[in-house]
Amino acid sequence: MVLLSCHKTDANGNVVVPESMTAGKITVLVDESVQPVIESVVDVFHSVYPNAHINQVNTTENEIVNAMLGDSVTTVVMTRPLSKKEENHFTKHGMTPEVTFVATDALAVITAGKPADTTITTAEIFKVLKGEPSARISKLVLDNPNSGTVRYLMEQAGVQKLPVNNIIYQKNSAELITFVNNNPGSIGIVGVDWVNEPTPQLQKVVENLTVLAVDNVKAKSEGATFFKPSQSNIGAGFYPFTRKIYVLNYQGYKGLGIGFANYTRAEVGQRIILKSGLLPQDIPTREIQIIKE
To answer: Locate the PBP domain: which residues (predicted)?
Structure first.
């Protein structure tokens, strides 16, 4: 008796797993500023679904959008949905996107060492972004001119173009953190999860940094006017620099991208986000069993 395998194989003889919501291979482009928390979700997803292989590529927001409009990727993680103009690229072909809001992120303002003043105002940050002199900030360090962080800050400051003076760009968040640590007096702005969950290489560096409290005159808080990017302050709306994290799917079918988005939005994924220090879209409940004696 001869048994014939019905499994498809690639050129190297490896079995090709058909794609489903929990199996197959897919590349997901991720906004580098939220890299750590998405890596955590992907790791657990892989452990639960061993036939799923998500290739997480961390890059800038502009690179992600360009890849989507070039039809080279269908699933991404960004801190904004596509604009109407960008989305027309897909809708004109009859494709309906699936946009999943999974968490709220914050941008941390960091400096090296233990400064005497551990607060900073949004007004001083906006001055630098507008090219005006600031008594508080001599060097403002940003991750990358093509990043979602820079785009967000420009929107908040109401500027179309950033000045060349007093702003220093790095390639990514890891390089930003290292630069700030090596240049006392400089102030950087980075996704808070890079501080909450630093890579092993950055652990010691992050321990030497101070996260500054930022003012929020619009916050309806009794007494306090300066806030750090803690989970509670993000949830209460006290911290001024927050943004939403989305998983965007333009697959057009129920594939692995949709499965990953659903997992991130479901209870296990939301617990991973909660543990990271970010604010999940749905805060998981805790059941307490009361035993009567």
So the answer is: 19-264
